[in-house]
Amino acid sequence: MPEHTEFSRALLLAVDMWRYGTRDGRQQAELQQALSDAVSAAAEIAGLDRASWAVQDSGDGFLARIDDGSAEPALVGRFVRELDARLERFNHARRPETRMRLRISMHHGGSLPAAHGYASDGPVHVNRLLDAEQARAVLAALPEANLVQVVSQPIFEGCVCQRLPEVSEAEFVRVRVDKPEKRFSADAWIRVPGVPAAKVAELAGVAPLALDLRLDGDADPDFADRVVVASLAAAGISLPGQVNEDLTVSLPGGAPGERVLGVWLYHLEEALAAHAPDVRIAVGVAFGDARAPAADAARYSAGVEDSSVVVAVSDGVHRQFVAGSTARMVMPDSYRRLGGESGSWVRVLGYSVPPEPVPRRRDTATSEAAPRIGVVHGSASNFEGGTFHAPIVIGAWNDNRGAGR
Q1: Half-sphere exposure of 86 (CA within 13 A, CB side)
Q2: Burial class (CB within 10 angstroms; exposed 0-12, middle 13-18, buried 19+) of 170
Q3: Cα-flanking dihedrals φ and ψ of residue 76, to 5°?
C-alpha cells in the first residue's frame, strides 16, 4: 500500500480519446501507440520531461501528475500546440471515423498516492473538467478539430492571465461545469486551437455579454466612436459591428468578462475625461439583455454626482466574472448588491465601496419662501411686513400677479 502521508499539490493532466470504445482491438492498439508517440514528441519540443510524469493509464487516455513546478506555462501553451500539430499529421489522410481526437484537461491541485493511482480533490477535479458537457459538445460540433483543451480556474488565473504560456486569455471561453449528481460545480475555460473563441462560445452555449450605456449630459455626435469604441479597443476587446445608436453593444461570444469589468471600465473612464468631461455614464452589463441593470445603474448614478462612471451587473454576470475574481482591476469587494427584483450588483468607479446615494437637491433658485404669519392684532393680520385689516387669516393666498404667498 502507498504511504498516505505523501500529499502534495502538483500539476495534473487528463487525456481522453474520442469514440475509443467504438474501435476494434487493432485500432485501439494503434491509437494507444499513436497517442503515446504524440504526447512524447510534444512534451520534448515543449521542454517537458515526460519520463518524470507519474502516469495512471486508462486505455483510452491517462491521468498524469507532473511535479515540475516550472512546467505549467509550457504544458498549457506549447505542449498543446505541438500535440495538435502531431494529431493533424496523424489524421490527415484518415477517414473521419478513424481519426484520433482528444479532450484534455489541466488543473493544479492536491493529490495523494493511492492503491490504483492517485486520490484527493485534484484528480477528481481534473477528471470532472475532462468530462464537461461543453467540451464534448464543442468537439462533436467541430469534426475538423483535433482536440479541445479545458483548464481550471487556478490554471487560467494563475498562468494564462499572467501571460506566461504561448496562448492568450482571449482564446479561451469561460464555462460553468455543473455535475449535481457528483456534487461538483466549478468554473473552467475551454479552447480549441485555431478556432475563434466566439465560435467556441456559440457551440458551448455561452450567451454573449451585452452592454447598455446611458448618458447624463450632452454628448457629441461622435461619442460612440471616440469614447465607447475607442475604450473597448484600448482594452483589447473587438466588436462584431458598430455600436447601436442607443449605445447598446452585444459583445462577441466568449468575450473576456473580467477584462470588460476591469480594464475596459478603466479605459472608459479615461476616454470620458479626455473627450466628454461633462458627461456621466451609467453602464449595465448582463447576458443577452442589459436594460435592467442599466436602469439600476442610472438610478444609482443620479444620487452619486462625484463619479463619472457607475456600473451595474446582473447577478449571473456577478457570479460568473466578479465573485472571487483575481483578474486585473475587477475589484470584487467594490460591488454592492441592490435591493429589489433585479438582483443587480453596483460599483461606483473611484470608490472602494459604493456610497449611499444622496437624492439630488431641488432647485430653489426661482421658488419663493413659504409665507410666515406675523403678529395678529384683533381683526388685523400682519403678513411679511404688510398689514391687512381683516379677520385672522389661516392658510395661503395669491396676490394679483398669481404668485403664491
Answers
A1: 21
A2: middle
A3: -65, -35
- Residue 229, amino acid: V
25-45 vs 80-91: helix crossing angle, rounded to 10:
140
Mean pLDDT throughout 312-334? 89
Whether the full predicted model's pTM is greater than 0.70, yes or no, is: no
Q: Who contacts 363 (Cβ-Cβ below 8 Å, separation ≥6)?
A: none
Give DSSP secondary structure letters for 310-369.
Answer: EEEE-HHHIIIIITT--STT--GGG-EE--SSS--EEEETT-SSPPPP-PPPP--SSPPP
Buried b (16+ CB within 10 A) or exposed e, 358-393: eeeeeeeeeeeeeeeeeeeeeeebeeeeeeeeeeee
Question: Is residue 9 helix, strand or coil?
Answer: strand
Read off the C-alpha cell for 228.
Answer: 465607447
d(CA 192, CA 297): 36
C-alpha distance from residue 79 to each of 90, 197, 258, 381 (Å):
17, 20, 26, 96
pLDDT for position 161: 86
Buried b (16+ CB within 10 A) or exposed e, 279-306: bbbbbbbbeeebebbbbbbbbbbbebee
Alpha carbon separation from 192 to 26, 107, 138, 264 (Å, rounded): 29, 17, 8, 26
User: Which phi-psi region, left, alpha or beta, contains residue 374 (left: φ > 0; alpha: ψ -120 to 50)?
Assistant: beta
> Does the pLDDT of residue 374 top 80, yes or no?
no
Please report the DSSP string for 84-100 in residue order.
HHHHHHHHTTS-GGG--
Residue-wise pLDDT for 172-184, tens only, equals 988 889 898 888 9
Helices 197-204 and 133-141: crossing angle in degrees, nearest 10, is 120
- Measure the CA–CA gap between 218 and 309, rounded to whole angstroms: 15
